[in-house]
């Protein structure tokens, strides 16, 4: 039987569409998603209701299409990349991942290193139109970014499996199927998270995916089924209730974390937009736009109409006004963001 998430009860509906903040996520939803004892006492159908409500609350944030949404998705991508790096046995934290990508010369993506490539994989999820995420070209590119061996036949078969998963299957089956598809071809758990986030974005109708499951470090690995080229993932997956429950719980936790981060970035973006009229630099509006659409930018960013010295002075002014933060903690090669 395919279980589909139930809609939230009617008396909660108005709560889910209000502007995001820590206070506007209903208490019952936080308890149902985050309290370990509450989660342990629930069955998969109850968890499906919780996950559906959490995604509904997140959907309200996404559909507002705020100017800071690009920075929000990239910040979530950074969180996912940091967890991916740790699971791969690497030592790079969020700061080191930022450095690997931002301090590389523009276009020189071969120099970002393995950890930097992991961040590019999650940037690809956050910045590629959702409808293009599960094409063969996109799947092949993200596998390269994650350092996973592949062959063209496997990528083509996987793309076919994912097309079947994206149609006429419930959320539990879709999430379980994303991980089963990755495992069937011997790929790492991080890729299953990437696929699941892409499938959710397409199912809900978002223009861009929101990185969610990749940052769930507590989402445990499962046994990998042997690959069977003759069987389709969409028709051969058996929904393990415990696994489905774990995935739905992780999705609910991740959705609430994304909502909370959106509230934080909204406050920071409002501060930046509030001081923007006071900025006298000629290209200040371009800098503000980049800060709203990126996780971070370097002080040496090439921005038309602004010298390196002028850009550094502008950043100093923005920090002084409390509109942005310096994120590296260094006296040189400094990095700024909301």
TrEMBL record:
<dbReference type="Pfam" id="PF07183">
    <property type="entry name" value="DUF1403"/>
</dbReference>
<protein>
    <recommendedName>
        <fullName>DUF1403 family protein</fullName>
    </recommendedName>
</protein>
<dbReference type="InterPro" id="IPR009843">
    <property type="entry name" value="DUF1403"/>
</dbReference>
